Amino acid sequence: MYQGKLRKITIILLALYTVLTLYFLYIGFNRASFLEDSSMRYSLIPEGIPLHFPMGRSFQLWFFELGNFVAFIPFGIVIPLLFRCRFIRFITLFILSITIVEIIQMLSRLGSFDIDDIIINTLGAAVGFGAQRLVRRDRDNFKGICRIFLTAIVLAIGVIAIAGGINHYLEKGGGEVVALNQLALKDGAVLWDETLSSFTSVQKKVEPQINVYSRNNTRTNEFTYLLNGKYTRMAGYAAIPDDVINAASDGRSDIIFIADGIEIYSLGLSAESGLNQDTFQIPLNGVNEITIKLMNDDPNPATNAVMWDVTLTEVNTGQMIINRMKEKLKTLF
To answer: Which of 8, 88, 101, 260 is surrounded by the fewest CB atoms within 10 Å?
Structure first.
């Protein structure tokens, strides 16, 4: 534990760093613009550890996540060097403090209360605490302080790698792939072409391998499948076949996906606009039922748009556990 002159300097530096952190939490990043919205914003259900690999994410979002983590590592390093405390006591007081900060952000309309922020801030503080405990010697001189910060960097890289791997497993991983038409139909009616008839789209032959939405369905159709929270995503293809376009069709086909009563994705296909074929991949974590609505505004009685090879990927073990935890938390809040 620091004593004497070093202790006074460290306390001053900690105070200045705390003021700087509070500035960014309440004033920086154009926080004043938040005041235009009078509603209180909060998120009480965790979405996971908000630390991802930089690949596949916008640099701004990834940098914001990293900053939320790294900015609180110094607190974990410095506070135990100033005040004797064990990890449980330190982390409990830190969680209490950062929770108060988040509540003030929400009440002042200068931010939001986000449980994910508390998780990532606490993880950063824990890395700092671990770093200063791993360095036992020379902690009160420049050489020892450098060792502590180098150790914190190594630990931080390890935590980021582990958290990124876990997030990749929870977000991108999946179990068995099943065809949509194999599920139980809850509402509506839908015909699937059992012969898997081929057709041409954008002058290329399409040969469905798993299923194909029958062209004998009505021009406007709506049907619902039960998912029971067992699937993590849906994927497939949709198009207006060339023979429909060649028959002087100039209408538009819309395919809308509704999860538990909320529209989550839509496709707009139109020969006139040139967008007459597309693919889709839709996240479905925790969704109990999926409704698909097809609407065609062409006077031609034949169905314009078709879908094929529509599949769902089952959740893996980790996703199943997370979904169950979220359901329990929803009942509490």
So the answer is: 88
